[in-house]
Design a protein that fits this description.
about 230 residues, seven-stranded mixed sheet, two-stranded parallel sheet, globular, Lipoprotein
């Protein structure tokens, strides 16, 4: 599989202080049965980025226009673009749109949402190696709890856009940054441990970002950390 480098910029990262509680909306949402999330579908190449040391700082990083907690509802084929000559061997760069049913809006304006959903664009690869919406659906099943830190400002390879895998009139946000997506896995009970949950970074492992990212064990705890 060919590797592509995405360069993202975030000039200013600040921390917003406010109180928060575990969101009942997320706890009551449809959730996937115990199992793992295969985030390899999201790890299509190396990303150069400025990362926030805490979830609270990530929520107010430059370019982040919406932060929501909810559940994955499905995937659709997104936009296609080319690097250089469209007839080259590299093939087209594909994108897939993740549809998220919003349980709680943590930060941002409603204009970045549509009919109770957020639509987040992710890389799917290039040419014959590109992943399909069905590949994403198998890897990240419907009902998987997720927090989205959606970018709404254009970056060099992510022009402002509407359409491309979203309903008419729905805004498309970017989930290309390494800290854009955090999923919750539900772990079944074993002879040694009770059933529980843990969080998994979508594009990069959470321990790459610092200890504040590995402390929350559930989407509810992550939302609380964002609001602190």
């Amino acid at each position: 599989m060919k590797k592509f480098m995405v360069t993202l910029t975030a000039a200013t990262i600040a921390v917003a202080g406010c109180g928060g509680q575990e969101p009942a909306e997320v706890a009551g949402a449809e959730r996937v049965a115990a199992g793992r999330v295969d985030v390899s579908v999201l790890r299509q190449g190396h990303v150069n980025s400025v990362n926030a040391e805490t979830p609270a700082a990530a929520a107010v990083a430059r370019g982040v226009g919406i932060v929501v907690a909810g559940t994955v509802e499905g995937f659709t084929e997104g936009r296609t673009s080319y690097v250089g000559d469209p007839a080259s061997d590299d093939g087209p760069i594909k994108r897939v749109v993740m549809r998220i049913r919003v349980g709680k809006k943590v930060k941002g304006e409603d204009r970045h949402l549509h009919d109770g959903h957020a639509y987040a664009e992710v890389f799917a690869g290039a040419g014959q190696s590109a992943r399909t919406p069905a590949d994403f659906q198998r890897a990240i099943p419907k009902g998987t709890p997720v927090v989205l830190f959606g970018r709404t400002r254009p970056t060099p390879d992510q022009p402002a856009s509407r359409g491309g895998g979203v309903p008419e009139g729905a805004p498309l946000v970017s989930a290309l940054h390494p800290q854009s997506l955090v999923f919750e896995e539900r772990t079944p009970a074993t002879a040694r441990a009770a059933a529980g949950t843990k969080l998994v970074g979508g594009i990069e492992d959470l321990d790459h970002f610092g200890p504040a990212w590995t402390k929350p064990r559930s989407i509810g705890e992550l939302v609380t950390a964002i609001q602190q």
